[in-house]
């Protein structure tokens, strides 16, 4: 990239001004030492009590104040030395007091943008902005920004990523969103009650401590085992809180997912970034015709597209997320002789290949159907173990860019061999009519 | 465009087999000698029979290395690279040139001594495991340059 023509673009005199994060930011670090002390006290109560009796109230208070002050100073310094700037093609983050670090994040490689507002941040009126580019670290998030500023910045980043002219990117503003799906709280609660993940830990949290009490009569053992189990049992409540008011929307700058009861999160996935979609159907949801949809975006931690929805509604959302893709309704099963390789469960496996998508299903009770658009396939593999070769069956693996592999198991060997080459061809041609990285630039 | 026609496969050069067999003979030969001689000298000649298991392992390994080496092959088609390998667990990988992110040529000290190098292809998917071991350095470099050129010509992002 050392062509002379590219140089003026790099050393442009008109640089965007550097900005600092919201002034509340230092406060979030001030709590760290307090939590450390409390954590230590909870972890080792006996020792903590012994230490506490040695100290007088004044020394205790003074020590705590000193800790908080030191933490506040640290928080202030990190805030003071953190700058960010938006240029035409990049987001630049400059940070570090002793160890300097500058991250330049290319906007045309943007995979997703998340604005999250944890409960305390909501009270303070600030928000966290996170950019997902493959390979970004946790520290590349902008925490915290003022709420309005976070929203404005997200709109600006998305507009620039989409390829709007630099001068107009500022004024484009929020793209209007159209709601595709909203999950009612009642449906969400019922769906959580109908999964084993809710009842299993709850039963364990009730049964295990009781049994332990009768066996050992030791209160400490019961507590040590019961507390983590109780924590696991409340996980479903946590899932309810995160998935509350789940709204999937569509806007020109991408897919919008807003959710959360206490901690609100607003995720945006630009068009063409979804690598694969998985439709999961737990056993007890089948009678109601409900499904759960997950999505894979490279370099992003967001994974849920729809926590629960009727099948038709979910398929309509998928049709918007993966343009031109219809969920295949009939899948072909492996040949009957595959039953000798995987008894019973062979019936759960299935495969359908359409013009646009490679769809593989697995699972007998809890069915899960994975869809990979041909344009997103990175490589195709065919594997055959000794037992599978004896039965003339083979597995086809399709690798996607989100580090997930979709496997169609137990296909007839000849069919699989043909499929291997055909899939490689389709993956190559499927890419031709894919969107560019900057999806709005002409 | 390669479809039904059987691609033109290339096997691995014999250098890799020679290196692996030599390493096998050196290590297991030493073990056999140690296990056979020491108890044979100190505890009685019957104990020299202890050398039989490592010797059997050596012979079995000799045959298995040959089979494994024969199973490796690759083919450069118009638009993708095929790699096929494995005796019991067969695996065949297809990587379209346009999906290649990085081509790596590596060569360890032992490999260098035998004049060998391996070529490894990386795509955006970590699961893509496309390695061709034991090539002659000239061939490895030719393959690397050709793959890079083809990858650039047919480049596609994620």
What this model shows, in words?
The complex is a heterodimer of chains A (about 450) and B (about 160). Chain A has about 450 residues and is α+β, with helices and mostly antiparallel strands. Chain A folds into 3 domains: about 130 residues, no CATH class; about 60 residues, no CATH class; about 160 residues, PH-domain like. In chain A, about 40% of the residues lie in helices and about 30% in strands. Chain A contains 15 helices and 20 strands. Chain A has a 7-stranded antiparallel β-sheet, sandwiched between helices. A 6-stranded antiparallel β-sheet of chain A has the order 14-13-12-17-16-15. In chain A, a hairpin with a 3-residue loop joins β15 and β16. In chain A, α7 packs across α8, α9 packs antiparallel against α12 and α10 runs antiparallel to α11. The N terminus of chain A is likely disordered. Chain B contains 4 helices and 7 strands, in the order βααββββαββα. The two termini of chain B are about 25 Å apart. At the A-B interface, β18, β19 and α15 of A face β4 of B. β18 of chain A pairs antiparallel with β4 of chain B, so a sheet runs across the interface.
What layout of secondary structure does this protein have?
The complex is a heterodimer of chains A (442) and B (158).
Chain A: H1 7-10, E1 19-20, H2 25-30, H3 32-43, H4 45-54, H5 57-80, E2 83-86, E3 90-95, E4 101-106, E5 112-117, H6 119-124, E6 126-132, E7 142-146, H7 147-162, H8 166-172, E8 178-182, H9 185-193, H10 196-216, H11 219-233, H12 235-243, E9 247-251, E10 254-259, E11 264-269, E12 274-281, E13 290-297, E14 304-310, H13 311-321, E15 350-353, E16 357-362, E17 367-373, E18 377-384, H14 386-390, E19 393-400, E20 405-412, H15 413-430
Antiparallel strand pairs in A: 1-2, 2-3, 3-4, 5-6, 5-11, 6-7, 8-9, 9-10, 10-11, 12-13, 12-17, 13-14, 15-16, 16-17, 18-19, 19-20
Helix pairs in contact in A: 3-4, 7-8, 9-12, 10-11
Chain B: E1 10-11, H1 14-42, H2 52-71, E2 73-76, E3 80-85, E4 90-96, E5 100-106, H3 109-113, E6 117-123, E7 130-135, H4 137-153
Antiparallel strand pairs in B: 1-2, 2-3, 3-4, 5-6, 6-7
Helix pairs in contact in B: 1-2
């Amino acid at each position: 990239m050392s062509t002379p023509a590219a140089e003026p673009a790099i050393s442009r005199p008109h640089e965007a001004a550097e900005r600092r994060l919201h002034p509340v930011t230092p406060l979030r670090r001030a709590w760290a030492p307090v939590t450390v002390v409390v954590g230590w006290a909870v972890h080792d109560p006996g020792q903590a009590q012994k230490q506490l009796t040695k100290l007088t109230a004044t020394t205790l208070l003074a020590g705590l104040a000193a800790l908080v002050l030191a933490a506040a100073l640290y928080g202030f310094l990190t805030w003071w030395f953190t700058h960010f700037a938006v240029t035409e093609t990049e987001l630049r983050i400059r940070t570090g007091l002793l160890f300097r670090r500058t991250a330049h994040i290319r906007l045309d490689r943007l995979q997703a943008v998340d604005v999250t507002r944890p409960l305390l941040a909501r009270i303070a009126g600030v928000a966290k902005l996170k950019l997902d580019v493959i390979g970004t670290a946790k520290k590349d998030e902008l925490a915290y920004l003022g709420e309005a500023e976070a929203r404005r910045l997200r709109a600006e980043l998305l507009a620039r990523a989409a390829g709007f002219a630099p001068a107009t990117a500022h004024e484009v503003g929020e793209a209007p969103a159209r709601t595709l799906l909203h999950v009612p709280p009642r449906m969400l609660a019922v769906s959580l009650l109908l999964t084993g993940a809710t009842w299993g830990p709850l039963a364990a949290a009730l049964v295990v401590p009781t049994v332990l009490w009768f066996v050992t009569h030791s209160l400490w053992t019961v507590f040590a085992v019961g507390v983590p189990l109780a924590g696991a049992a409340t996980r479903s409540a946590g899932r309810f809180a995160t998935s509350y008011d789940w709204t999937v929307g569509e806007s020109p700058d991408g897919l919008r997912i807003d959710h959360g009861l206490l901690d609100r999160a607003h995720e945006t996935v630009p068009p063409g970034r979804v690598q694969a979609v998985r439709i999961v159907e737990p056993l007890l949801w089948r009678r109601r015709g409900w499904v759960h949809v997950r999505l894979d975006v490279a370099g992003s931690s967001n994974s849920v597209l729809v926590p629960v929805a009727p099948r038709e509604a979910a398929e309509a959302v998928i049709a918007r997320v993966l343009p031109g893709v219809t969920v295949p309704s009939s899948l072909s099963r492996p040949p009957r002789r595959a039953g000798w390789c995987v008894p019973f469960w062979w019936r759960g496996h299935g495969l359908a290949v359409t013009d646009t998508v490679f769809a593989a299903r697995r699972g007998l009770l809890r069915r899960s159907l994975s869809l990979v658009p041909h344009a997103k396939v990175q490589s195709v593999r065919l594997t055959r173990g000794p037992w599978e070769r004896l039965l003339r069956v083979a597995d086809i693996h399709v690798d996607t860019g989100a580090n997930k592999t979709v496997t169609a198991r137990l296909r007839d060997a000849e069919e699989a061999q043909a499929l291997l080459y055909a899939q490689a061809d389709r993956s190559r041609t499927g890419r031709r009519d894919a969107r560019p990285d900057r999806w709005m630039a002409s | 465009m390669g479809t039904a026609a059987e691609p033109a496969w290339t096997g691995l050069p014999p250098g890799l087999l020679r290196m692996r067999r030599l390493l096998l003979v050196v290590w297991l030969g030493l073990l056999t000698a140690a296990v056979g001689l020491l108890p044979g000298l100190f505890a009685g000649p019957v104990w020299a029979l202890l050398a039989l298991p490592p010797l059997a392992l050596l012979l079995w390994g000799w045959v298995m290395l040959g089979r494994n080496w024969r199973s490796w092959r690759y083919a450069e088609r118009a638009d993708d690279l095929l790699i096929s390998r494995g005796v019991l667990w067969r695996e065949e990988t297809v990587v379209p040139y346009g999906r290649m992110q990085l081509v790596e040529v590596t060569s360890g000290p032992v490999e260098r001594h035998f004049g060998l190098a391996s070529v490894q292809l990386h795509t955006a998917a970590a699961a893509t495991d496309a390695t061709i071991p034991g090539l002659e350095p000239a061939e490895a470099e030719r393959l690397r340059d050709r793959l890079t050129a083809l990858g650039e010509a047919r480049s596609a992002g994620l």
